[in-house]
Design brief:
single chain, 342 residues, mainly alpha, Serine Threonine Protein Phosphatase 5, Tetratricopeptide repeat, 2 domains, elongated
Length: 342
């Protein structure tokens, strides 16, 4: 397809009016720096070899590796290097500088837009964190949860404290009938004859108050201990995470799982589902360690199972050491329980 401005510039150059063709070629190059034809004809308007080389170098920057440009540039350089140096043997003619130097055109590249800034990390609500974790999302989602500005070990402690309290209250509510039956049992009433009625009910009230407090405390301490052990073992396996990230993701898993386990465990014939829930929690734990510690799934599974394996072998060793003593104690108990023969 013909380009009228380019054809006009070529006709001007061929007719010896290169100065008039330069503005046309400059406009073409500004509009399309990849227009090699415009660049090469612009070189024809240059008066000196150095200016031609300078224009071709600018063209090469916008069209790297173009064979025609490289060939022309190498030809001009070789011609410039091989030109014989002339020795002046006469006095120079008087020189009158021009009234106005010809303007030197330099190509101004278009402005490069700055890179778009990364979006700020998203802040998740507690139910969004639990939903993302329980839906078994990819490891990248777990990593995005760690970038939450609210992600911290303290937030996980709050979750575990609340769920531990709810679990303890649910356990107490489910055992109220059993406590009432104990109080109405005649044998218990005979044992408690010598005790004031206020003291009996006070003991049970103290029990009902301590159970939620202990449930809350043990839930938080259990998370702290579990996160510390897994963080330590992960570092031994080449992990690069920290305790806070590990505790945060473990809390996001353990809190809803513990609520579901408490509810399922209180329903007969349905409590067997807690086994599948434990396996699912194990898989979520693997994803959490992969995100928090940057380790693979095999190492994460080893970190989770290693404490249980060590405790099993330690228990076997203790049983092997204490087996003779336990056998003697068991024989004494059986001999005391056996009535004498007459």
């Amino acid at each position: 397809m013909t380009n009228p401005p380019l054809q006009q510039a070529i006709e001007l150059i061929r007719s010896g009016r290169g100065a008039e063709a330069r503005p046309l070629l400059q406009d073409l190059i500004r509009a399309d720096p990849q227009n090699i034809t415009a660049w090469l004809w612009y070189v024809e308007t240059c008066q000196t070899q150095a200016e031609r080389i300078q224009i071709l170098q600018a063209c090469a920057r916008f069209n790297p590796g173009h064979p025609q440009v490289e060939k022309a540039l190498s030809f001009l350089r070789s011609e410039s290097d091989s030109a014989p140096e002339t020795v002046r043997t006469w006095d120079p003619l008087p020189y009158t500088p021009p009234k106005e130097a010809p303007p030197v055109w330099e190509y101004t590249p278009p402005p490069v837009p700055p890179p778009e800034p990364e979006p700020p990390p998203r802040a998740y609500a507690w139910y969004e964190v639990w939903g993302e974790v329980l839906s078994y999302r990819p490891v990248e989602v777990f990593e995005d949860l760690l970038r939450d500005p609210n992600a911290s070990a303290g937030r996980a402690y709050v979750w575990m404290g609340v769920t531990g309290l709810l679990g303890a209250l649910l356990s107490v509510m489910l055992r109220m009938n059993a406590i009432r039956r104990v109080l109405e049992n005649p044998e218990f009433q005979q044992i408690a004859v010598g005790l004031p009625e206020l003291a009996i009910y006070g003991y049970f009230a103290l029990f009902l108050c301590l159970v939620p407090l202990l449930g809350t405390l043990f839930s938080v301490l259990g998370l702290m201990l579990n996160a510390a052990i897994q963080n330590f073992l992960s570092r031994l396996f080449g992990g690069v995470g920290n305790y806070a990230g590990t505790a945060y993701l473990l809390g996001a898993i353990s809190a809803p799982i513990s609520i579901a386990s408490s509810m399922l465990g209180s329903i007969p014939f349905v409590n067997c589902l807690t086994v599948g829930l434990s396996i699912y929690a194990l898989l979520l734990n693997v994803r959490a360690l992969m995100a928090a510690q940057q380790i693979n799934a095999i190492k994460a599974l080893g970190v989770i199972l290693l404490p249980g394996i060590l405790l099993f072998f330690l228990g076997c060793i203790l049983v092997a050491i204490l087996a003779p003593s336990l056998g003697e104690v068991l024989q004494q108990i059986l001999s005391m329980a056996t009535p004498p023969a007459y």
